[in-house]
Amino acid sequence: MKLASIDNKTRDGQLVVVNKDLTKAVTVPEIAATMQYAIDNWKETETKLESVYNDLNSDKLPNAFHFSSVRVLAPIPRAYHWADGSAYVTHVELVRKARNSELPESFWTDPLMYMGASDAFIGANDDIEIENEDWGIDFESEVAVITDDVPAGTNSEDALKHIKLITIINDVSLRNLIPNELSKQFGFYQSKPWTSFAPVVVTPNELADSWKNGKLHLPLHSTLNGNLIGSPNAGIDMTFDFGQLVAHASKTRSLMAGTIIGSGTVANQGSLNGSSCLAEVRCLEIIKDGKASTPFMSFGDRIEIEMKDNDGKSIFGKINQIIKEYKK
């Protein structure tokens, strides 16, 4: 099934069930008012929501409305826990190569992960507001999962059973602020503003054979100002599957329902199908030409991120955003 949150003038939005074609939706206050409530009570809500989804797809619900007629928020507009991994080590390896830095061997066996800001997320069509272009504005196209309650010490095989929802995201980065932050050896903060989410999340069974072994085996398309930057396949070259990422996050503590885990920038070895961020494009230029020629994003730029099924239909809806100057 497919779920979303729409604007009802509250911080957590209103949960809606969305049909397969992303054209119609229906509110379900009698089941769950918010996405967080639904995932908190997943054993009770899942079957009921699936029933509504089936009726919606069969045009049996007279109270359905056009999904495009409402403002869509991030599926979980704010979350208790958001952690982003770096599962595509080939991407990290490329970045290190451009800096003439050797990749530690442990990167291939122990996932990288940071905790991001989850007090608010950005909807798929909301502007990305940044104060200064000089901060190096970049997009990062990723896959993300949402879990139910995950006990501490869960192994990677069992962790897969706790993944209830899947979507795609834009983990916005301010590249020129990152080096100074990392030099302090204490991680990201200012360089990682609010993250953008696709309109809907879907259950794993909605993805059929495209979801297997904890990976989503489909291309992720990133388009900047009408120009395709890349369509790497998210299931190829993913060093750590989502079971491993969830297990890594839950190694020393339980994860609460609604925890969001990101894949990191989707990348394929050699970048034959392009890239999922401008930093990778620039690294390839540095390796080839000795310098980067592609600029980071500017005010007025439009970034679109989308994943389609094998029939060419959008699965999660499109992230479609414009970079705007933030003014107090």
What's the structural blueprint in terms of helices and strands?
Layout (H helix, E strand, L loop, with lengths): L1 E5 L7 E5 L5 E4 L7 H6 L1 H16 L7 E2 L15 E4 L3 H10 L14 E3 L12 E3 L6 E2 L2 E7 L8 H5 L2 E8 L2 E2 L3 H6 L12 E2 L3 E2 L8 E2 L2 E2 L3 E5 L2 E4 L11 H8 L10 E3 L15 H12 L12 E6 L11 E7 L3
Parallel strand pairs: 5-18, 7-20
Antiparallel strand pairs: 1-2, 1-13, 2-3, 3-4, 5-6, 8-11, 9-10, 9-18, 10-12, 14-15, 16-17, 16-19, 19-20
Q: How would you characterize the overall build of this protein?
A:
With 328 residues, this protein is α+β, with helices and mostly antiparallel strands. 19% of the residues lie in helices and 24% in strands. It is built from seven helices and 20 strands. The protein has helices spanning 35-40, 42-57, 89-98, 156-160, 178-183, 242-249, 278-289; strands at 2-6, 14-18, 24-27, 65-66, 82-85, 113-115, 128-130, 137-138, 141-147, 163-170, 173-174, 196-197, 201-202, 211-212, 215-216, 220-224, 227-230, 260-262, 302-307, 319-325. Strands 6-5-18-9-10-12 form a six-stranded mixed beta sheet, with helices on one face. A five-stranded antiparallel beta sheet has the order 4-3-2-1-13. Strands 7-20-19-16-17 form a five-stranded mixed beta sheet, with no helix packed on it. Helix 3 (89-98) packs across helix 7 (278-289). The longest helix is centred in the first third of the chain and has 16 residues, at 42-57. The radius of gyration is 19 Å and the shape is globular. The model has no long low-confidence stretch (mean pLDDT 96).
